[in-house]
Design goal:
With 217 residues, the protein is mainly alpha-helical. The chain contains ten helices and no strands. Helix 6 packs across helix 7. The longest helix is centred in the last third of the chain and has 27 residues.
């Protein structure tokens, strides 16, 4: 069986920045941490000279902004029930929407700058910003700053840890066993996260209203 590292290198070589864009967008489909994994791998490949650092960062940031903007407009058009269902599907509780809304109300639109670094908040900050009435220019400004900061940080991390990432691939016996290991770990983490959120927050109720985070009370 072909070495997993060579398969991934081939994927990035064939699809280039499209693979980066698609990997970041996968998280929008409910695959946890797919974007970080993609960017860490891309960063390690940047270290090998296959891709450029700046194009990778800009592509990842654009993908993040597109994904966030989709959910912003879902919230903006008032699809609160859809957001609630996505919250329950992802975390098993509606508490994530309430926490995201509390963060926006407490820290305002500037919280979007760090949203992608905070699990849970990163997923629901965008739709809750739309539901809360934050204007599109404000959302785009702060979300873009956050996306660029996040992408540059993770890609740089992959570049700095390139040797360690390569060593992990070398220790894997085959692509089949590697994919099974990664998939199993992701499932266990996802289940553990759901159990933890249910235990901590219970069956929290979905709520909207109050002042928009970008407006004065």
């Amino acid at each position: 069986m072909e070495d997993l590292k060579e398969k991934i290198l081939g994927l990035f070589s064939e699809y280039g920045l499209g693979a980066v864009f698609g990997g970041v967008m996968l998280e929008n489909a409910g695959i946890p941490m797919a974007s970080e994994a993609t960017l860490l791998l891309a960063g390690s490949i940047v270290a090998g000279g296959v891709l450029g650092w700046l194009p990778v960062v800009l592509t990842a940031a654009v993908a993040a902004i597109v994904s966030d903007s989709f959910w912003y407009f879902v919230g903006r058009i008032g699809a609160a029930r859809l957001v609630q269902l996505y919250c329950r599907f992802s975390f098993g509780s509606s508490a994530c929407t309430i926490k995201a809304r509390e963060m926006l109300l407490r820290f305002g639109p500037r919280s979007l700058i760090v949203a992608r670094f905070v699990p849970g908040f990163r997923t629901f900050a965008s739709p809750m910003a739309g539901i809360s009435g934050l204007s599109w220019p404000q959302f785009l400004l702060y979300d873009s700053i956050g996306a660029l900061l996040w992408a540059s940080t993770v890609v740089s991390g992959g570049w700095l840890l390139a040797e360690e990432i390569n060593r992990v691939f070398e220790q894997m016996q085959s692509a089949h066993s590697a994919l099974l290991t990664v998939a199993g770990a992701m499932v266990l983490i996802f289940i553990a996260l759901k159990v933890w959120i249910r235990a901590r927050h219970g069956k929290a109720q979905f709520a909207t209203g109050d002042a928009a985070p970008g407006k004065e009370a």
